[in-house]
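Hmm, how's this folded?
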Amino acid sequence: MSVEFRMVEKALNFLQSRQGEKFTARELASELFRLYPDECQQKRLRSKAKVTRLDTDEALIQQISAELNVTTLGSSPNIKMTDERPRHYYFSTKSDEAEIEAAETAGAFPAVGAKIAYTEHDLYPMLGQFLLKRYNIFSKRIDEKRSKNNHGPHGNRWLFPDIVGFEDLSRDWDEEIKSCAQYFGNRKTRLWSFEVKKLINRSNVREAYFQAVSNSSWANFGYLVATEFQGVEEELRILAGLHGIGVIRLNVDMDDGGPVESEIKIPAREREDVDWSAANRLAQENTDFLEYLKLIRRFYQTGDHTPAEWDCTED
C-alpha cells in the first residue's frame, strides 16, 4: 500500500473518529502531520527522487492537502462535503433526509465554522445584518404564525417568505432629482424576498428552491438563503437559470468575519415590476406583510423612511 493511499485511509479514519466535525483538506493534512510523523517522514524521503520536493513541513502539509481532494475523500459513502470553497468534509452515517431533520432541530447541526448550532430563527437577524451592511437593504421578519389562514389548513403553504427587504434607490440622489422622480412616478425602490434554511442538500434542494420561487413571486428579487450547501451547486445553477431565484450562503462563522462576509453565490434575476396582485394576497393574510407595505407606501408619500421601524437598523 502506497504512502499516499495510507494517508487517505488515515484521513477517513480520523474523520470517523471525530464524527460530525467539519474539516478542510488543509486542516486534515495538518492533523495527519501531527498524528503520523513517521509516515510523513517516509513521504518526505520518497519525494527526494521526484521533481516535487517536500523539503519543508509546509510543503509536505500542502502536498497531503492536495491529495485529500473530492475524488479521494468524496468517494467514501459516509463522507459528506460542502459546496463552498474551501470544501469541508465530515463523517456521517445519516441519510441526506436525516441530515435535514437534524439541521432543523435546534442544537443538532452546527454550520461550518459555527461554535454553536443556530436555530433558523437565529439566522434572521444575521441575514438582516448582511443585507444592511453590504447592500443597504432594510429587512423585516414575516411571521407566518400571524396569518389569518382564510384558505384552509394548507391554503397559505409556501405563501410567505421568512424575510422581506426594502432598498431605497434614491438614497444618494440630490433632493431635486428625488422630487422629479416623485413627480414623474419613477421607481425609487426595489423589494426583496428571502427564504431561509439551515442546510440545503440533495434531499431538499428542489423543495426549498421552489418554496422560494412560490413565496418570492411578488418581489423584484427573490433569494434562497442557507448556511450550508452540500452537493447541490450544479442543480441550483440550473434552477436559477430557469426560474431566476438567487442563492446566498450566510456565513455564521464569527471567526471568519460573521454575517457581513456572507456571499451571493448565484445572483437573482430582477423582475422589473412588483406583482401587486400577489403582494395583496400576502397583505390580506398576514399583518407583518401588511405593515411592510405600509412602510413602503409611507416612503413613496414622504420620500423618506425611518430606519428604526425595520428589524435591522444602522447603529
Observations:
- The mean pLDDT is 87.
- The first strand starts at residue 79 and ends at 81.
- Residues 3-93 form a domain with the Arc Repressor Mutant, subunit A fold (CATH 1.10.10).
